[in-house]
Each structure stands twice: as C-alpha cells, then as structure tokens.
Write a structure and sequence with these properties.
- This protein is an alpha/beta fold.
- It contains seven helices and seven strands, in the order βαβαβαβαβαβααβ.
- The protein has a seven-stranded parallel β-sheet, with helices on both faces.
- Helix 1 packs across helix 7, helix 3 runs parallel beside helix 4 and helix 4 packs parallel to helix 5.
- The longest helix has 29 residues.
- It is globular and about 50 Å long.
Length: 253
C-alpha cells in the first residue's frame, strides 16, 4: 500500500511552491487531495495536474482571512471526499523583513490572520471528525523564523512562533484521541514567495544579512513535501508535537 491510501487531505496554499509539491506527493501516495488556495487558476492547475497523473483532487478557492470561507471549504471537502484524515496548514504570507518599528497594525494583523488564525480555525473545523474516527494527522508548515529571531521580519517571526505553540498545544491536548500534530520549519526554499512581497525594509534586510550569511543553500519544495508525507502517514505514528527544522543545517549554525 501507498503511505496515504484511503486518506482525504486538505492542503492550504496548494496553488504553488511547497503547497503544490505537497499536493502532488500526497496524491501520488494515494490521498484524495483538496487543493485550497485564494488563487483559483493556480489551485485548478494543481488539481488538474494531479488528475492527469491519475490521482484524485479538487480545487477549493478559499480566502483564509474569512472564517466563513474556511468553514464552507471544510464542509465541501467532507461532502466530496468524506472524512478528513490529514490537514496541512501551509498557506502563509511574509512581511518584507520589517523590523518592529516599521510594522503597521494592518500588516501585523494580515500576518496573524493567514499564518495563525486560519490554521487555528482549520484545526477547529477538522478536529471533531478526527476525534470521532480515533485518528488524524495535522502538519503545520511553520518556519525556522518560528525558532529564532533573525530569519524574517517581526510580524512573520511572531506569527510562526505562534504556529509552533499551536502545534504543541494540539499535540498535547489530543494525543489520547489518536490525533497527531507536528510542524515543519523550512529554511530558505526556492518558491518565489519573497518575490511577491513588498520591497524589503532596508534596515530589516541589513539585519537579516547577518543570519543569511550562515545559510547552507536553498531547498526545493519537494524536499519539504517528503517530510510532510512522512508526518502525515502511519510511518510517523510515534511522532507527535515535533517541531522539525528542514533547512540543510541552517539552524545548527
């Protein structure tokens, strides 16, 4: 059997980058995949590529800043594919390396809405079904910015630390319910997400340069997807509450 045969998985931010790679790998391992993204054409392209390869996928256009959108998306996936066994909270926004004094309240709120509140609401939406089934896996894509203070701007760093905390809380709370929750903390990955960001804050970029100098290399999205497959599968049945850096050793420096 493949690692995820018979599983329904929701993957946010599945239109591109790490999310698209995770969707493809999950489908190849037998999962029915819900590709959740605000980018409707991109989500459709990911789902189409999976279908072309013989897998099962649907594109679910969702604005993760809107709680009603999240609830509707989870309900639709359940109607289409049945009970949800895996949730991957991958979607995220960056912050142009803004230091504390340069972050506006709307910028702060956006980072937390997408990077923390949306994963929280998605976890709330899928947990009852996982608990009822006695099994489930949640994989949060955090960041090494959730482990240190010098890998991104203030809002992104704080939001990813919060996602790490959410991961540990769910893992501890629901271990006896058969639900596992783990987080992957990628280092620099070649996704182009930073290219879609606002122009970098000059002071923040200068400070970031100090930590950037120790980075071994950029990773590829599929290198993160491989770890996500493991954590979502029964191969990781004894892994719960783990915060896993996947960064070629950047945090070891």
């Amino acid at each position: 059997m493949r690692a995820l045969d018979g599983t329904t998985a929701i993957v946010t931010g599945g239109a591109s980058g790490i999310g698209r790679a995770i969707c493809g790998r999950f489908a190849a391992e037998g999962a029915a995949v819900a590709v959740v993204d605000i980018d409707e054409p991109g989500a459709g392209a990911t789902a189409g590529a999976i279908a072309d390869a013989g897998g099962r996928a649907i594109a679910v256009t969702t604005d993760l800043r809107v709680p009603d959108d999240i609830a509707a998306a989870v309900a639709w996936v359940g109607d289409e594919f049945g009970s949800i066994g895996v949730l991957v909270n991958n979607a995220g926004v960056m912050d142009a390396l803004r230091p504390p004094l340069s972050v506006s309240l709307p910028q702060w709120e956006l980072a937390f809405a997408v990077n923390v509140t949306a994963p929280f609401l998605l976890c709330q939406a899928v947990l009852p079904g996982m608990i009822a089934n006695g099994r489930g896996a949640i994989v949060n894509i955090a960041s090494i910015a959730g482990l240190s203070g010098g890998r991104a701007g203030t809002a992104y760093t704080a939001s990813k630390h919060a996602l790490v905390g959410l991961t540990r809380s769910i893992a501890f709370t629901h271990v006896e319910d058969g639900v596992r929750c783990n987080a992957i903390c990628p280092g620099g990955v070649a996704t182009g997400i930073a290219d879609r960001d606002d122009p970098r804050d000059p002071f923040g970029a200068e400070r970031y340069r100090l930590a950037h100098a120790t980075k071994p290399r950029h990773g590829e999205p599929d290198e993160i997807a491989s770890v996500a497959v493991f954590l979502a599968s029964d191969q990781a049945s004894f892994v719960n509450g783990a915060i896993v850096p996947v960064d070629a050793g950047w945090t070891a420096a």
